[in-house]
Design goal:
It is found in: Endomembrane system. InterPro entries: DEAL/Modifying_wall_lignin1/2, DESIGUAL. Belongs to the DESIGUAL family. Residues 1-26 form the signal peptide. The N and C termini lie far apart (55 Å). A 3-stranded antiparallel β-sheet has the order 1-2-3, with no helix packed on it. It has one domain (5-185). It has 6 helices and 3 strands, in the order αββαααβαα. The chain has helices at 5-29, 52-75, 85-89, 92-124, 142-172, 176-185, and strands at residues 35-39, 42-46, 127-128. The protein has 196 residues and is mostly helical. The longest helix is centred in the middle third of the chain and has 33 residues, at 92-124.
């Protein structure tokens, strides 16, 4: 099945929005802290059952799908016409937005995975030998920040896709006006004299 630019942009946007929504819900569902239960020389932390860990990982998975789709959409041969990758990276605007998209994707993945893994560790390691523990949870706000960075990443992939379209148009000279202007700009059309 051949994809169009519109279809690819919808795929990238859908995965990015899903990642954002799941990340925000995960942040809102995260408990403030657990309930400590003191026994002889240990403290056992009891946490309410919540979907923070599952939603955090799902948000990360959709971020990965959005990133893969965004990357794939940039270099996909639309209408059977492929463009060398070097042609894309010669365009400064494309290069800047491509690098920003990659950087925000890395930050988003870090901000989504860090609190999710931390929360999972808190839920699995419930027994503490420190009698003063207050049963902490993952840092508040990082997961939500990761969700917003995930949305930013999606938007930067879409901007890079638009700029890739411009690079394609320039590479193939798809504009009829440009094709018609080229012979007129050369002047009389007489051959150049060879100089030795």
């Amino acid at each position: 099945m051949a994809f169009t630019v519109k279809q690819m942009s919808l795929i990238v946007a859908t995965f990015g929005i899903l990642s954002f929504v799941l990340g925000v819900i995960a942040e809102n569902k995260k408990p403030a802290s657990g309930t400590p239960e003191t026994k002889e020389n240990i403290v056992i932390c009891h946490y309410p059952s919540d979907l923070t860990v599952s939603l955090g990982y799902l948000s990360t998975v959709f971020l990965a799908f959005s990133t893969f789709s965004g990357w794939y959409s940039l270099f996909y041969p639309y209408q059977g016409k492929s463009v060398p990758r070097a042609a894309f990276f010669q365009n400064k605007g494309f290069l800047i937005f491509f690098n920003v998209a990659v950087a925000t994707t890395g930050l988003a993945a870090t901000f989504l995975l860090w609190p999710t893994i931390q929360e999972q560790l808190h839920h699995t390691r419930k027994i503490h030998h420190n009698m003063e523990t207050d049963c902490p949870t993952a840092k508040t706000g990082i997961l939500g920040g990761g969700a917003f960075l995930s949305l930013d990443s999606c938007l930067f992939w879409l901007v890079a896709l638009m700029l890739a379209g411009n690079v394609r148009a320039d590479y193939f000279d798809e504009s009829l006006d440009e094709v018609e202007k080229i012979p007129a700009s050369y002047g009389s059309g007489q051959p150049l004299n060879a100089s030795v």
